Amino acid sequence: MYAGTFPIITAEEAASHIQDGAMVALSGFANAGTAKVVPRAIAKRAREIHSAGKSYKIRLITGSSSGNDIDEELAQAQALSWRAPYQSAPALRGQINRQEVQYIDMHLSNAPQTLLAGFFGKLDYAIIEATDVTRDGRVYLTTSIGASPTYLRHADRVFIEINDYHSKRLPEMADILVLPPPPRLDPIPIYDPLTKIGYPYATVDPKKIVGIIESNEPDRIEPFATLDWKAKSIADNVVRFLFGEMISGRIPPEYLPFQAGVGNLANSIMAALGSNPYIPAFRMYSVTFQDSLVELMEKGKLVGASACSLTVTADTLKHICSNMDFFAPRIVLRPQEISDDAGIVRRLGVIAINPAIEVDIYGNVNSSHLFGTDIMNGIGGSGEFTRNSYLSIIACPSTVMGGRVSCIVPMSPHIDSNEHSVQVIVTEQGFADLRGVGPMQRAKKIIDNCAHPAYRDYLNAYIRESDCGHIRHNLRKAYELHRNFLEHGKMLPDLGEIGDHI
Amino acid sequence: MSIINSYPKLSPEEAASNIFNGATVAFSGFTNAGAAKMIPRALAERARELHARGAPFKIRVLSGASSGASIDEPLAREEAISYRAPYQSGSTLRDQINRQEVEYVDMHLSHLPQTVLEGFQGKINFAVVEATEITRDGRVYLTTSIGASPTYLKYADRVIVEINRYHSPRLREMTDILIMPPPPHRFPIPFHDPLTKLGYPYSVVDPQKVIAVIENDEPDVIPGFAASDERSEKIAENVVRFLLDEMLAGRIPPNFLPLQAGVGNVANGVMAALARNPYIPPFKMFTEVYQDSLVDLMESGRLTAASTTSLTLTSKMLQRIYDNMDFFAPRIVLRPQELSNHPGVIRRLGVISMNTALEVDIYGNVNASHVFGTNVMNGIGGSGEFTRNAYISIYMCPSVAKGGKISSIVPMCPHVDNNEHSVQVVVTEQGLADLRGLGPMQRAEKIIEHCAHPAYREYLRKYIENARVGHIRHNLEKAFELHINLKETGSMLPDLDLSQIQAV
Fold it and tell me: Considering its fold, how many domains does chain A have in total?
């Protein structure tokens, strides 16, 4: 379709347009559908320019984490000065934590609106992966939608990477609509995770397309690690809790849609829900569609899923694309502004399940910053789902690093979702249902049911020695565990090895 | 016993005698507006008598939001409350909560009705709701607040209605009531404008559940606001300048966006300043509380429409509305708090939210509820739902309090109601920090240089210099040094010369 309409150029040619200081948007959400060859050429160009002693850095915005390998390569080439709204690449993380790259860690559904409003400044370039682009500017995206529709619309100039690797049938899942700026008159008419309200393609003013770059390469999605016993116990506890809710009538028999965060733990929780015979078939209104969901869908346990990306390994993607007649009617891929929309999450009554780095005894969750200082990845979509869901569940192990770190602490040094929004905490030890109870009652439940037994005495003593108030805290000792870890490599220096028993 | 519209008419004492020790009682009232009045007082009396005889009597109290003078204070003084949700504001109750004598669940207000219908609050034994009328078939016309009353009327086992003759029966012309069904059977909420109506002018109750109707004619107890001070006016000026700039830059459309303003003097001052500015076009509000200052603005044509869940007005102002219902009724909509504070509607309408903080940290995290992270002031209220979903979220506070002994800009907040991911603009009398699109250290610089009081800037800069390097810089040894100093010496910086603080 595009041949003869738009100039076909090399990645190097494309990169040569992009000047020092430019604001560049890439397609890509949770490693899926990332522009690949042009960013790599930008990294190469940066290295060349740097070795000539000149400066070259761009400002980079994506859907969420772009391909880790892409962020990694750009970071290693010292090519980034500013990054939003999410990242998960080790070299980039290091640069952010050394204050070499400015990083804006944002609620993902807000990114398009923020760009549109001009708060990020002018968007110079969008580099978007697609399966096709038509003469009149319809762009058929690949494995993620993310914020690409907004970037295509608002960038001054556009490069399209046509990736031949991807199935031309992926657009059958796409449902794209760019929300106008507020005040928006119409509610978003999504009644069900599978409701479609838009178009299978994004649009771009064809005059803005500088060139097409041809590529043929898969997304690089790491397979999930095999499950350890802790992840399995956490998953079992989530299932046990949800089953109890169903029995007591607080979840309707037709069930409510699930959202699950990214990663091993979420993957294992979904697998556990799927294999439980008492949990009825369910839907998902989530952000990433991950590997474990394919099997659930084929078993008929997962009957429909709304997502923003197909973050699946190459084998799984092949499997989906060769069974498109089955999968296409069961998966909808949406822009992140809609997959994470506060109003829809609230309306559909989503059950949100997200991981945490640590949770404090009152239910405040840190999901982004170790010690309150070092970024891991970012808040991502966890804030919008936790804040607006019908049931918000936070899952994490009670300890990590062989027990040297407790994930239940007196006070979280960074708060991504607070006690006002977090309803249920689950660890391998058990779960704490925090709904309708005050702070001290929450603390008791979290310590007794979720903290590792080896840390319970410490946490109880912390409360005893705290100032009395609605919430009890001792501001001198609130971060003693964190400081101990920074100094001694363990939160409780005198604590011996913790057995693997529950 | 006489009958009103087929319901038994009782004295407050008779009606209150039904309410047993340990009962969960849901009262009408969002702020003191539309709060039940007679039953709380009768219950307090009953508690006093029972306690004097050594008998226990404590109830679990729910309401729309705070209802300090009408509900919280009289009951707390008699130690008659064991549990309180979702918000409070009485000084006696506050102290009991902070002494751990009363369990208090400080909640996002729009969530409350949903948690009631889910059963997370347990069984609601009684609803006590103020109304202007109840019909034979169970239509209840509410008074100056809607709050969560429609939900309480629906889910309570037994209902007591306080018919208040003081209030204008024409309040129903402003009222728009709808209870959201439980998920997943919810429809999109088709508000196109703060004034869109989609429900009924009354709430409904199963008439068989109504055990008593009580009559009275008492006004709401709404205190007036203090005259605004120099600092509030400076803050207001800074907010207006920012909004004008946003309009000029095209980031706010020429017909403006709906405003939300928190409760209190600072918010009142900002609204007045906005109205005075000739370059700000007439505007609308999508907010939770309609306060005194808005009456003038509406009459002068500056405020053209307001959606709210309560008319929190002094008697004088409320009377002005009652005397001009033909003018006000088409310009105000009173909604349940589930809708007045609904995240989806706030997001879609592009609300500009303006709320007040106790303190803000140098990275933009806001503490709006807990002094020292321990002692609750009031609660998070609606600030979380507006800040999180607003098109532009603004937080305001004076840079210092208590003559400079307290800096409202601190290294780290010991309680976070709204975090750096949601807070976009911080304003003090010193100036304004626009945090959009900036990383943490860039935010810190703006907040310290533009918002902190000059007397505290050096300390805050030093805090960062000595902090561990990361995406965010913190020193976990000293993060709360200012708070600890304040607790121990009465001043955040004991050596600070307070005479340099006086000038704004």
Answer: 2
